[in-house]
Amino acid sequence: MTVEQAKWELKGLRCERETAEIRRRIESLGQPHRNVLYYRYVLDMSWKQIAEKMEYSTDHLRGYMKKRALEKYAEAK
Questions:
Q1: Which residues make Cβ contacts (< 8 Å) with residue 6, sequence separation at least 6?
Q2: How is residue 9 annotated by DSSP?
């Protein structure tokens, strides 16, 4: 799976709510990648809310952290 495919699969989660396989893949990730994806796509938190909760800048979270979390998700089995 590519990062782009992972992003669209996770965006679909917000519409359908949760599917067991997607949630399992998110939960298989290490921290902080798990929290980034869980907060955004399962709990539907804004990037600002996530940044405050995780004590990151919004720019760092939406840039580097989001990219790395999506890469990890795409690699997850």
A1: 70, 71, 73, 74
A2: H
**Model pLDDT for residues 42-58, shown as the tens digit of each residue:** 888 999 999 999 999 99
Length reported for the chain: 77
Query: 11 and 41 in contact (C-beta within 8 Å)?
Result: yes
Give Cα separations from 46 to 27, 36, 37, 40, 50 (angstroms): 20, 11, 11, 7, 6
- The answer for residues whose C-beta is within 8 angstroms of residue 46's C-beta and 6 or more apart is none
pTM of the model: 0.75
Decide: helix, strand or coil at residue 46.
Answer: coil
